[in-house]
Amino acid sequence: MFLERDIYPSLVQHLPKRQITVLTGMRRTGKTSLVKQLLAQSNIQQKHYFDLERIDIRAIFSEPNYETIIHALTQQGTDFSKKVLIAIDEIQLVPNLPSVLKYLYDTYDIKFIVTGSSAYYMKNQFSESLAGRKKIFEIFPLHFGELLKFNGVSAIPLNFSQSANYISSEYERLKMYYDDYINFGGFPEVVLADSAADKRDLISDILSSYINFDLNLLSDIRDPTNLYKLIKLLSVRIGTKLDVSKITSVIGIPRATVENYLELLEKSYLIKTIPVLSTSPDREIVKAKKVYFLDNGVASLSGELGSGSKFENAVFNQLMHKGEVAYYQLKTGREIDFVVDKNYCFAVKETATETDLKNVQSLAKNLEIATCYVIGRHPVKKFEGFIWGGFIR
């Protein structure tokens, strides 16, 4: 069954181009499925798919003489005098693969589609050697609109103005799915799982694989327990300013280690930090970033996350697909939860009121932004400027 992701048309558009098509994102976000869909879509006759988690496949691409790779594939019937399409999954598993790709790309008429589980790897080891030869596409867990599609539910994308048009029947139709999104996130296999217990088991397995396999591969982590403690600590600090000194004292590891872990967690797509907007530094918070998780299921796994924080994290993941997200805060503590593209301001409240809207409108004047909304989970009271969270898709 072909369930199309929103990014798929962009991938198809890039498919005929000479550049290497690179898909990067956290493990099990659906990169392999997208690659196999692209293979089926391509009109190139000679196609190969290689999974580097197989040791025999790693052996092929680990050959020190790169022509040996060509000889091996030629013996399997590939004619390199004609166009060839090669897809390679999890390229970070072969350290010298960027060099291999560069040589084969420059020497033969090969279209490559490759995947990797880390921006950390892609940007530090992969990008320099393939400058100008690749385009990177980031693959995230499903956003809410995609979750609906995967559940066979019809729902067209809406802009913010359309989202603010509250329709009771649509709320009733989509409420159950939105609750699932808030509680279990958007990993494709989690979305398609039948029961809550199955969803929780899958999320636990995803996080364990991420810590024990991906992060150990990308960095020399001596004690994964400390990393798990940090992830758990971050999950209960969703939507709050990142205080590295406090985190350091709670976990009991050096500040430099915490900072390195935070960078690794962000570049391997577990968390995302957002900046603060500033116009008058003497009145505003100007440095501290806020932290969010890129999947609600992983964020909720500790069981200690409150419903308000879950909802705010879900809204962040919805808004990040709409534009660049930041926040705004005065030193008095008054704040705007999210500012998108410096054009839209949002307050996030489980039960929203008109007073919440007036507060965000008042602060938005400092940023010279006129368009403001309050995003709520429970539509107890509807008013102009109110958006039910499930209408952001």
From TrEMBL:
InterPro entries: AAA_14, DUF4143, P-loop_NTPase. Keywords: ATP-binding, Nucleotide-binding. The keyword ATP-binding applies. The keyword Transcription regulation does not apply. This is ATP-binding protein. One of its GO terms (molecular function) is ATP binding. Coiled coil: none annotated. Residues 18-148 form the AAA domain. Residues 214-342 form the DUF4143 domain. Gene3D superfamilies: P-loop containing nucleotide triphosphate hydrolases. Pfam families: AAA_14 (PF13173), DUF4143 (PF13635).
